[in-house]
Each structure stands twice: as C-alpha cells, then as structure tokens.
Specification:
The protein has 290 residues and is of the alpha+beta class. Helices cover 22% and strands 26% of the residues. α1 packs across α6. The N and C termini lie far apart (41 Å).
Length: 290
C-alpha cells in the first residue's frame, strides 16, 4: 500500500475502536441521505441501506455478523453484506475478500494525563499554533454554535467550494440521531462576528474517544491558522474529559479519491499514529427475505 504520511502501526492500540463501533457515533446517518436505512442484527449491530433495487448491509467489528439475526426489517431483500473487521484477519467460511487493500486508514492520537500532545506535532503545526496564540487569538474567539449557524458558515467555506457538501449533510443527519447529545460544534469567529472556520466534535463516553466531523475553513480563517487552533481546542477538550484517544478518519492512500490528499497532508502534522484495518469481507444473501 502506498501510504505517504508515516509508518503504519503494526497493531492497533489497546482499547482503540473506530468511530463506527461507538454507540454515540450516529452510524444510521450514513451513507447518502437519499437512501432508506435501518439498523439490523446483534453483536455487532449493522446498518442496512437501500437505493432502488440495490440493498446493502455494513457491519464493523471483530464478531462475525449473524446473518440469520438480520432477516427481518422493512428493507429485507437480496443484499450484499460488507464486514469491516478491526483487528481480525482470518476469513471465515462463506466470506470473500476482493481486494488486499485496507478498508480505511485512520489516525489515532493517544491523550495521556500530563502529556503535552503538541510535542508530537510537526514543526509547522507548532509554529502555526504559536502564531495563532501570539498574534491572532486576541482578535478571534473559539465558541460553540448551533447547527443552523454552523451550516450557513460551512456553505461559504473553501471546503464547500472545492469539494462538496456531503460531509455537512452527514452532520445534519447525525443531529437527528442520538449522536446529537454527544456532538459539539465549535467555530472561530472574528470581531465582526463572521465565522472563519469550524469543526464538529463527536464524543463517545462509552469508548472514551472523540473524532472531529465536517471541519471547514474560509480564506480569512486559513490566514490566521484557525484550523490549527480548532485541532488544538479539540485535543484539549478531549483530554480534559479524561478520554484516551482523538481519532481522525480517512487518510488518503493510493487508489483513494485525490480530493482527500491535501487535507490528509494537513492532518498528518498533528502527531497521529496511523492504523489500517483488514480488507473488507463480502457475503451475498440471495432470495426474498421476510
């Protein structure tokens, strides 16, 4: 695998779980909003989603999905089942892998009491944080906002202009699930009241992890290092809660969409350790199911 940002850890850290495993993550909000979806199965719980005649199920975890436990539901029909393993590498009977590539590469930052996490940052990130603190923090504030104001600012951002709004739509859908109770929306605002950057943060009290979600920046925010200030705020708030890991998902590697590459380069400056998951396994369940 062509991974340009550092060494992949040989094993996932003890206690670490990807966001899809967290009960607070709001997994039912994915994928595309036009799809019908429902939760299915037990241990692990899965997400079934359908678009027209196409029907899929996704599970994340190291327990083999129980297909029989998922026979019910309003979307029950012939479907493709995808199993995203976390640490397990064997292929049980009836499952198939069609690629040797990991289903994702994530960044994990351990946050220990008394530890200065910025020591692990790239020198450029430490410099940007220092410039924010010494030069810009007196003219800008980091503060919480409600979803409506966050979404309006996101639509004016560089992310919206250069990529698309799908991540914002995912955030909006998550605010209609249990994830809303565990999500905070933080923005950087100038003295005129204009928002120049922001990030959502989803906390998992169950797993003691957090992840940022749907971050954005404007041209003004980029000039004052608002994105770096928000990462520092996210880390500090996670550490203050006594949580173990800050997690960022979807690092670019070869064969992934090129649009991720620049943001992955930026994220790589914040002392993350890189973890990759085993390839996705597939099972095809045919016939009408009731």
């Amino acid at each position: 695998m062509d991974f340009p940002y550092g060494e992949i850890l040989p094993a996932l850290p003890d206690g670490f779980q990807p966001p899809e495993v967290w009960p607070e993550y709001g997994n039912l909000a994915d994928p595309a909003g036009i799809c019908k979806r429902e939760e299915v199965g037990n241990f692990p719980r899965g997400i079934r989603w359908a678009l027209g005649p196409l029907c899929f199920e996704e599970y994340t975890g190291d327990s083999e999905p129980d297909i029989d436990a998922a026979r019910g539901g309003t979307l029950a029909r012939p479907r493709t089942v995808m199993w995203h393993r976390v640490r397990r590498t064997d292929t049980p009977r009836g499952w198939y892998a069609f690629s040797k590539k990991p289903w994702r590469v994530d960044g994990v930052c351990p946050l220990q009491t008394g530890d200065d996490y910025t020591r692990r940052w790239h020198k450029n990130a430490r410099r940007d944080l220092r410039l924010w603190q010494e030069t810009h923090a007196q003219h800008y504030t980091i503060e919480p906002v409600l979803l409506g104001e966050y979404a309006h600012a996101y639509r004016q951002s560089l992310v919206a202009k250069r990529v698309d709004l799908e991540r914002l739509y995912q955030l909006e859908r998550r605010q209609q699930t249990a994830a809303k109770e565990h999500t905070e929306l933080w923005v950087v605002r100038n003295k005129n009241g204009t928002i120049v950057g922001g990030t959502g943060v989803i906390y998992s009290p169950t797993c003691k992890h957090s992840t940022h979600f749907a971050p954005f920046i404007t041209k003004e925010g980029r000039g004052v290092f608002a994105a770096t200030a928000l990462v520092d705020h996210w880390f500090a708030q996670t550490k203050e809660r006594g949580y173990s890991f800050a997690v960022t998902t979807n690092f670019w590697f070869k064969s992934q969409p090129r649009g991720w590459k620049g943001f992955s380069e930026f994220k790589s400056h914040f002392g993350f350790e890189f973890v990759q998951y085993p390839p996705t396994l597939y099972k095809f369940v045919g016939g009408k199911i009731f």
